[in-house]
Amino acid sequence: MLSLLGVLTAFSVLLQAEGLATLLTGGGVSLPLLVAIAARAGLSWGHGVLSGRFAVSVRDALRQRLLRSASDRAGVVATQVTRGVDATDSYLTGYLPSLVVSVVVPAAVIVRLFTADLVSALVVVVTLPLIPVFAVLVGKQAKASVQWELLTKLGGHFLDVVRGLGTLKVFGRAAAQAATVRSMASAHADATMKTLRVAFLSALVLELVATLSVALVAVPIGFRLLSGDLDARSALLILVLTPEAYLPLRAAGAKFHAAAEGLTALREALSAPVVSPRSAVSARRRGAPSLVLERVSVSYEGVPALSEVDLAVPAGSRIAVVGPSGSGKSTLLAVLLGFVPPSSGRVLVDGVDLRSLAPAAWLEDVAWVPQRPTLFRGSLASNIALGLPSADVPFAARAAALDSLAAGLPQGFETPVGEVVSAGQRQRIGLARALARTSAGLVLLDEPTARLDSRTEDAVLSATRRLLPGRTAVLVAHRPAMVSLADRVIELRGGRVRPEVAA
């Protein structure tokens, strides 16, 4: 559609030039001239509408793609989804339509100039490539990619600082990180100013080249007109058409620098790895599943987290995963949840590849307790049920030793959950969520007793014992009390499974 509008724009330019040449030589205002002027105005409006709609659809598609990104850098993805996607607007609505017109209109003008005056057409043909050549030479000095890279690093680092602000305050590192953020912001500001300086220089160079090129045509035309070698109408037609040949290229060059950041962001978004949507297969049986990991490997930006892990978990069994921090235990649970796709290998659930299962249906059959359960705005009951209408909240709370907490609250289970909840109570709320999912056949626990005192740990362990019977369980554990709940113990070191030890 943009190509068709470009062809119509070229036709209207030629028609307008013919009408202006006739008007300026005493021919009067003609109907084709009025039609051409109206057509150029309408085509300009049409370009804006179509490119705007196209930009909206592209931005929506980019956001959906980025939200499905397999990247684990939340800060970078957040910057791409917001600033990066919005920055593509200047490229999609400004530079791209101008690029189409800059190809079609100069070609049409040159063809018409060849029929009007061979010498002028040759001058335009020789000088016209100077505009893109100089634009490329100057544009190479623009650091739009560096500017965007600095912005994404700043966004990612800032999000990490905000997330860990409490820890930074505890260890007295908040001021140092604030200085780092200021330094990164200053570097981005410097890169932006350098890009703007190059953009202004580019505009000056393009205007100068276009003006000199038009002068190379206009001056000889004037002398030939005075000598009688050229009639007035042909001279005016050439003088009107010549700037039209350079105008689209000047406009595209001027808009390129404004669109450079958006183009860089667009390329980065399109190159981002995406988790492909998984299609559902026939419904698997509900209940305790059997799990088989076949040479499963996971890497984060080239750094291996799991390396060819082979593991079999029979239905209804309980295994404990132990190992030092950073050995890949939490990554193993993320793979079983389906949150992190294996770089190689596969996970079989009752003999079916996990990637072929519908994510929503699989997660309905999983009870998961992370290291630090997330609490949402709302009541204690809604945090335990967590969107499960059939949840028996009092039973789950009683099983997780939370009934005493609810009894001491002014509104019981309907009391809003705030920051006053302790670490132990937060863990028990996470366990209560898992206990409320009575139909879940798989239990995944990620060190639920970490950072708890012995009394709270006993309460959590007691709730965990109520959670495990009749289910398949994978327990990430550091403390012996949690390991004692398992039938088997496996050890992860460096992302690899070590020989099994006795439970």
From TrEMBL:
<dbReference type="GO" id="GO:0140359">
    <property type="term" value="F:ABC-type transporter activity"/>
</dbReference>
<feature type="transmembrane region" description="Helical">
    <location>
        <begin position="198"/>
        <end position="223"/>
    </location>
</feature>
<feature type="domain" description="ABC transporter">
    <location>
        <begin position="291"/>
        <end position="503"/>
    </location>
</feature>
<dbReference type="InterPro" id="IPR011527">
    <property type="entry name" value="ABC1_TM_dom"/>
</dbReference>
<dbReference type="GO" id="GO:0005886">
    <property type="term" value="C:plasma membrane"/>
</dbReference>
<dbReference type="InterPro" id="IPR017871">
    <property type="entry name" value="ABC_transporter-like_CS"/>
</dbReference>
<feature type="transmembrane region" description="Helical">
    <location>
        <begin position="119"/>
        <end position="138"/>
    </location>
</feature>
<keyword id="KW-1133">Transmembrane helix</keyword>
<keyword id="KW-0812">Transmembrane</keyword>
<dbReference type="GO" id="GO:0016887">
    <property type="term" value="F:ATP hydrolysis activity"/>
</dbReference>
<dbReference type="InterPro" id="IPR039421">
    <property type="entry name" value="Type_1_exporter"/>
</dbReference>
<keyword id="KW-0067">ATP-binding</keyword>
<dbReference type="InterPro" id="IPR014216">
    <property type="entry name" value="ABC_transptr_CydD"/>
</dbReference>
<dbReference type="InterPro" id="IPR027417">
    <property type="entry name" value="P-loop_NTPase"/>
</dbReference>
<keyword id="KW-0547">Nucleotide-binding</keyword>
<dbReference type="InterPro" id="IPR003593">
    <property type="entry name" value="AAA+_ATPase"/>
</dbReference>
<dbReference type="GO" id="GO:0042883">
    <property type="term" value="P:cysteine transport"/>
</dbReference>
<feature type="transmembrane region" description="Helical">
    <location>
        <begin position="92"/>
        <end position="113"/>
    </location>
</feature>
<dbReference type="GO" id="GO:0005524">
    <property type="term" value="F:ATP binding"/>
</dbReference>
<dbReference type="InterPro" id="IPR036640">
    <property type="entry name" value="ABC1_TM_sf"/>
</dbReference>
<feature type="domain" description="ABC transmembrane type-1">
    <location>
        <begin position="1"/>
        <end position="261"/>
    </location>
</feature>
<dbReference type="Pfam" id="PF00664">
    <property type="entry name" value="ABC_membrane"/>
</dbReference>
<dbReference type="Pfam" id="PF00005">
    <property type="entry name" value="ABC_tran"/>
</dbReference>
<dbReference type="InterPro" id="IPR003439">
    <property type="entry name" value="ABC_transporter-like_ATP-bd"/>
</dbReference>
<protein>
    <submittedName>
        <fullName>Fused ATPase and permease components of ABC transport system</fullName>
    </submittedName>
</protein>
<keyword id="KW-0472">Membrane</keyword>
